[in-house]
Amino acid sequence: MNLLFSLHVAHKSPVALLRDLSQDIHGHLGDIDEDVEVEKTNHYAVVNLRTAAPTVCLLVLSQAEKVLEEVDWLITKLKGQVSQETVSEEASSQAALPNHPVEKAVIMQLGTLLTFFHELVQTALPSGSCVDTLLRDLCKMYTILTALVKYYIQVCRSARGIPKIMEKLVKLSGSHLTPVCYSFISYVQNKRSRSPQCPGGKKKSAAAGAVAMARVLRETKPIPNLIFAIEQYEKFLIFLSKRSKVNLMQHIKLSTSRDFKIKGNILDMLLREGEEEEEEEEDDENKEDTTSEHGEQNKEPAKKKRRKETKCLS
Fold first, then answer.
1. pLDDT given for residue 257 in this prediction
2. Same domain, yes or no: 286 and 180
3. Could you tell me if residue 257 is inside a domain?
4. For residue 301, what are the contacts with CB-CB under 8 A and spacing of at least 6?
5. Which pLDDT does position 275 carry in this prediction?
């Protein structure tokens, strides 16, 4: 695998190879959604159920890190060239022309890497180094996307705007990467809640629990960093939309706080139960009104009790 990567790097960019390998890994390991049946691809016979994780998975993630570092270096170089441009529009336009092929190459690399991560983030990876490395690389991906957005914020100070290919990259990130990133985070957190139990005594179960907790802490540590990186990316996209007067946020659903989750089915059930209880209380009150004066006297405490409950809820 390392020789194959070296050959691709010497000949051309390895991002297409990474995308094909990620599809093979996804096909062999299955999807994070158990109801989804993944179509198996066989681009490379070296990827099978035995080697897909962690061997091949860690190798492709390591190679993806190298590509991200190269792209980050190029973006830094482009930002340095923009800062050295003169204020005049003529000099700006003349200096910007040679950057177009480099910008296109950077965006193409990031677009293919985005499809690579799109496949891996949907893969049911086993707990361990694969999950930890993938979360860290996703954080790097969003950090570099943010750096590219900041570059175009600088570019938009001149008469030149953002290219159409950049709009496509933003659309791809909003539709193909960010939603599945949050699904993958939920998948990792659900695996954390299912801690394995070790039979054979308290000592063994305590030791297994400690090992499981250490693994969980290691795997979930990059999650806050990833969420922060996504939010930073979205924040600077809003700035770029205002600067370029192009609505880049139309294909992006803004992320929300992950401190809690609203489960629709449970919420509907609780609301229905609350409505039924209120109807029962109203029926009881109507019966008390019609029975006797004793029931009329008991009506006031019932109202007070309901007012007290309403106050607590508010």
1. 45
2. no
3. no
4. none
5. 73
